[in-house]
Amino acid sequence: MWTRQAIDAAIDRRAQERSGVSAGLLELDDHPGRRLLDGAKLSGVTAQAWERASAELAGLWTVFEAYQKVLDRVAAMRGGPKTRLGDRELAAMADLLTGRSVALPRQAVPFERRGLLDPASTQDLLTLDEAVESMTRTYDVVKKVAVDAESAWNRLLEPLDELQARVRAARATADQVGAGADPVFGRLAGIEAQTSDMRRQALSDPLGMVAGSGAGTPARVARLLGELAGVQAELDQALLARTEFDQRLAGVEEVIVLIARAEAEAERVRGEVREKIAAPRLPPASAAAAHLRTKVAELQRERSGQSWTLLGRNLTALEKNSRVILENAQKRVGQVRAPLDRRDELRGLLEAYRARAARHGVSETPALAAAHRLARDLLWSAPCDLAGAEAAVRHYQAAVGAALPSMS
């Protein structure tokens, strides 16, 4: 026989239990994963999982409402501290607290599942403990779906958010550059489409993506980020070309002026070399300045008709090419002048060897005088036979070397 003290203890325990269940359900109701599942347009595996979990959650609330009715009824029967309770009241409350008092709504039995004498509906009756066990099982199932969905969303959307932010930045740059038929715009559109498609799939079916097709999402995102970096670089170059086109083209023209000066100097020296050196071996003449001026004119004409991405690439290539050509043109001046420099070097060597011979008093010997005269005539004649002069200087050098030991 239940005593009043036992009834009160059971009521207190059930009240604490009720508070815990209520708090858990409210926490589940406020969970980010559950709210996202409720608000998203789901598909695939996630839609199926949440459809089942939603039905389970609705059933959980149904059980909870029936469970609360029993506890409310017991509390009403118990009354206040001064309420007198007889054996009949104590027995009734004990029956509610321990018996199958949790009455769930009646469920219709489909016609095809009923026999001739079967009822059209049935009703499940649970004890309070059975109701708590049922709610706990259902709670765990629904919570797992919500937690797994939130985890999948976070895993998928974090890299996709970064990708989308960079795609938007690239699109902003593209809008500044302006529309065009350059392939870079098509590549950007393709990346945008792939990003949107992955994001749509991630939002609608995170569980399916994580379990199946989405397993490769990080690799796909990494690949698209790499492609996007190239697109962004081209767009940045195009935007720079658009904003600094005139200034940069003027810089190219200044380099062309220097190239033209170097080419003119090379041709002036070429004429002098041909006049003073017999059959010189010279590098071919260059007309790079005229060619570059043609390229500049083409860029100026294309400015109104081509996309800035292509103009940017062409302008950058022209800048690099013109600097290389300037360096080569300046080197060519020295290459063209080389025969004259070699003649002057040989003249200096000849006079140095003659001075050495003079210090030893052998410069006027017939053999050395004749060898010096031959080399000097070759070096100071125009056009100069440079090969013959070089051989004559070597001969004079050898003669001086042979004469000095005999006088020591």
Summarize the structure.
The protein is mostly helical and 408 residues long. It has helices spanning 4-29, 32-39, 44-78, 87-98, 128-177, 183-204, 206-211, 217-276, 288-302, 308-359, 366-379, 386-407; strands spanning 102-103, 107-108, 121-122, 125-126.
Structural class computed from helices and strand pairing: mainly alpha
Strand segment count: 4
Into how many domains do the coordinates divide? 3
Order of helices and strands: HHHHEEEEHHHHHHHH
Largest sheet: 2 strands, antiparallel
Q: What is the overall pLDDT average?
A: 90
Distance between the termini: 146 Å
Low-pLDDT stretches? none
Give me the side-by-side strand order of the main sheet: 1-4
- Tally of alpha and pi helices: 12
Shape: rod-shaped
Describe this structure in words.
- This protein is an all-alpha fold.
- The protein has three domains: 153 residues; 94 residues; 67 residues.
- The termini are far apart.
Q: What topology emerges from the helices and strands here?
A:
Elements: H1 4-29, H2 32-39, H3 44-78, H4 87-98, E1 102-103, E2 107-108, E3 121-122, E4 125-126, H5 128-177, H6 183-204, H7 206-211, H8 217-276, H9 288-302, H10 308-359, H11 366-379, H12 386-407
Helix pairs in contact: 1-3, 1-4, 1-5, 2-5, 3-4, 3-5, 5-6, 5-8, 6-8, 8-9, 8-10, 9-10, 10-11, 10-12, 11-12
Defining traits:
two-stranded antiparallel ribbon; 12 helices; 2% strand
